[in-house]
Specification:
With 141 residues, this protein is an alpha+beta fold. It has a single domain (2-23, 34-139), classed as Alpha-Beta Plaits (2-Layer Sandwich). The chain has helices at residues 2-15, 67-76, 110-117, 120-128, and strands spanning 20-23, 36-43, 54-61, 87-95, 100-107, 135-139. The longest helix has 14 residues, at 2-15.
């Protein structure tokens, strides 16, 4: 139910012009190290100005970074997190050397993060990841 609500809320926000999506292609400023780069940035601009933000960092590895996993999945999954209550922003990183996908999220409150990490979106990440590679860290601001 959480994902369905998020899906519809995302589309409402998108149609109202309240979601910013930026796909990054070959931008040297967005390279973290030799192999990891920022691929997608999603934000709710009016919430970015909040002074208190709680951060969620998620990492997981896959057996192989297919075209679907590195290009299509990050964009298709956007409605399933960006519509969640309390979502502020996400930066999506890809590391081709280690087949690692990384998400750096900002949320209004820890409660919002807990709602997300107990949702089907997190279960989906567990399904597509190498067993034992999925981990996350919550950081209070």
């Amino acid at each position: 139910m959480k994902l369905l609500k998020s899906f519809f809320n995302y589309h409402f926000l998108l149609l109202a012009g309240k979601i910013r999506i930026r796909c990054i292609r070959n931008n040297s400023e967005e390279i973290i190290n030799d192999s990891e780069h920022l691929f997608l940035q999603v934000s709710v601009p009016q919430k970015e100005i909040l002074t208190h933000k709680t951060k969620l960092n998620i990492n997981f590895r896959v057996n192989k970074l297919s075209l679907f996993q590195r290009s299509i999945l990050p964009v298709l999954s956007t409605p399933f997190y960006a519509g969640f209550r309390g979502f502020i922003s996400k930066k999506f990183y890809i590391c081709r050397e280690s087949n690692t996908l990384r998400g750096h999220y900002e949320w209004e409150k820890t409660e919002d993060i807990n709602n997300y990490i107990t949702s089907a979106a997190m279960k989906f990440m567990q399904i597509i990841s190498i067993p034992g590679s999925l981990n996350y860290e919550i950081k209070e601001n």
